[in-house]
């Protein structure tokens, strides 16, 4: 299992120390949740913070844009050295064009589905994707309880991926811990995003190791 700790749950008064913990761990990525207060009812952080993070993170950046018109930010996300740029299907008027732009910028393209958005929305685009992120909470705030219907969606997405020949990773974000992570691993998830479970622990490295072993 791959693990992408979510910086949203970190202590921002000690951000360099928090990132150092991730750098010294077995985490595979660092997940950056960008919220604009329009697409979701919260504001997190923007490019000045992400640029600072990119200078000290030794993990590839997994950038998740919970914003309207995410296509406007392709070049800015590229410039911070992101490996993945992830956009919401619900926020993209021309999703295929946005995915193409992400690839043209040299990044891997991810698309996110909210809890009530069906996997069938990806039928015509999944072959072009490097990653699909299923939200297992409603986007906007950390610390929410896991939505169990996500397990069914993971199985549906795995079947669609197989039928289409897609190589896209299946990533899950929201309410991930040792218990839900095990269920997600059994359903077919490839990457677990974990915020509170990692950063609210006295031993984040141990929590990351627990998830990676699932």
Short description:
By secondary structure, the chain is of the alpha/beta class. The protein has helices spanning 15-23, 47-56, 74-79, 95-104, 149-164, 178-187, 196-199, 204-212, and strands at residues 2-5, 30-35, 61-66, 84-88, 108-113, 131-135, 169-173, 191-194.
Structural class, please?
Answer: alpha/beta
Summarize model confidence as the mean pLDDT. 96
Got a strand count?
8
Write down the overall geometry: globular
Percentage of residues in DSSP E strands: 15-25%
Reading the helices and strands in chain order gives EHEHEHEHEEHEHEHH
The percent range for helix content is 25-40%
CA-based gyration radius: 16 Å
How many helices? The count is 8
How do the strands line up in the largest sheet? 1-8-7-6-5-4-3-2
Note the main attributes of this structure.
single chain, 214 residues, alpha/beta, 8 helices, 35% helix
Characterization of the model:
- 35% of the residues lie in helices and 19% in strands.
- It has 214 residues and is of the alpha/beta class.
- An 8-stranded parallel sheet has the order 1-8-7-6-5-4-3-2.
- It starts with a strand and ends with a helix.
- The model has no long low-confidence stretch (mean pLDDT 96).
Write the layout of secondary structure elements.
Elements lengths: L1 E4 L9 H9 L6 E6 L11 H10 L4 E6 L7 H6 L4 E5 L6 H10 L3 E6 L17 E5 L13 H16 L4 E5 L4 H10 L3 E4 L1 H4 L4 H9 L2
Parallel strand pairs: 1-8, 2-3, 3-4, 4-5, 5-6, 6-7, 7-8
